[in-house]
Design brief:
Elements lengths: L6 E6 L2 E6 L10 H16 L5 E6 L4 E3 L4 H4 L4 H19 L5 E5 L2 E3 L1 H8 L2 E5 L3 E3 L13 H9 L1 H10 L2 E3 H6 L5 E3 L1 H16 L3 H14 L4 H16 L2 H11 L10
Parallel strand pairs: 2-3, 3-5, 4-6, 5-7, 6-8, 7-10
Antiparallel strand pairs: 1-2, 8-9
Bound molecules: coenzyme A.
């Protein structure tokens, strides 16, 4: 797995770890790292041994301190749009990933770092985490989905305040507004994320995949259309082997053995 310059990839049982590894730049996302993340997520998507993906930054100081400001400084209107479209493509790949993706927010998650965490399905932060969308301070706007996913997660008013002020919030404030699901000590961060991943993995993989799809695709639709989508996906899930096994195992008072089919 030595094919990445800016990432460390690890597999522990059926959990895949992606660690962004540019600690001297606080794991800032340059274009090369964005491409590598795309490649790493794609390979985990296709790897049937991997059931969940955990994402963190290397070192104890930062998850990701943002998009690489050195690269941002040279953009014009056409290269700027292209740049963010590529970043957005990565975020959408993560958001629509068929397996659960958990962000272990282990320090600064600013700008593109908050946006990367927002694209993950669940966010767990260590108590030293600092989050925010400071782009206005650079004369820019968020471009990797911040103006879209942040208001959807924490509500319009709170997102407006964060994005317009560019302020950095601490882990407790991120928890209070619902930007992260949980805050733990730095030592507990990895075990907590792994325990949650294992809890999710214990369910039927196909069911987990369809839950992600139903929530993601349903949330922006009117309720009646979202409910119809849920009904359609429920119907599809009923024809999977996992649903037959899960219900049969319950009735036979034994543990299910899901195959992910
Ligand atoms: N892009 C490029 N390089 C970055 C970076 C980013 N987003 N964030 C940090 N770095 C680099 C610094 O330039 C510095 O590099 P150097 O040692 O070659 O000078 C190195 O990472 C360490 O950062 P430094 O600023 O010295 O650490 P600090 O502890 O004093 O401050 C932060 C930490 C996170 C408060 C500060 O780095 C910062 O404000 N970063 C930018 C955050 C931001 O605006 N992100 C949004 C971008 S859209």
């Amino acid at each position: 797995m030595g094919e990445y310059k800016n990432l460390e990839i690890r597999q522990e049982e059926n959990i895949g770890w992606i660690i962004i590894n540019r600690p001297d730049k606080l794991n800032a996302l340059n274009q090369e790292t964005i491409k590598e993340l795309h490649k790493a997520f794609s390979s985990f998507q296709d790897d049937s041994r991997i059931k969940a993906v955990l994402l963190k930054g290397s070192g104890e100081k930062a998850f990701v301190a943002g998009a690489d400001i050195k690269e941002l400084s040279g953009l014009d209107s056409s290269s700027g749009k292209k740049y963010v479209l590529e970043g957005q493509e990565l975020m959408s790949l993560i958001e629509n990933f068929r397996k659960p993706v958990i962000a272990a927010v282990n320090g600064y998650a600013l700008g593109g770092g908050t946006e990367l965490a927002l694209a993950c399905h669940i966010r767990i932060a260590s108590d030293n985490a600092k989050m925010g969308q400071p782009e206005v301070k650079l004369g820019l706007i968020p471009g990797f989905g911040g103006t879209q996913r942040l208001p959807r997660l924490v509500g319009k008013g709170v997102a407006m305040e964060m994005i317009l002020s560019g302020k950095t919030i601490n882990a407790q404030e991120a928890l209070r507004i619902g930007l992260v699901n949980k805050v733990v000590s730095q030592e507990e961060l990895i075990p907590t994320c792994e325990a949650l991943a294992r809890e999710i993995i214990a369910g039927g993989p196909k069911a987990v995949e369809y839950c992600i799809k139903s929530i993601n695709k349903g949330l922006d639709r009117p309720l009646d259309e979202g409910l119809l989508l849920e009904a359609e996906l429920f119907g599809e899930v009923c024809s999977t082997q996992d649903s037959k096994e899960g219900t049969k195992a319950f009735l036979e008072k034994r543990k299910p053995e899901f195959q992910g089919r």
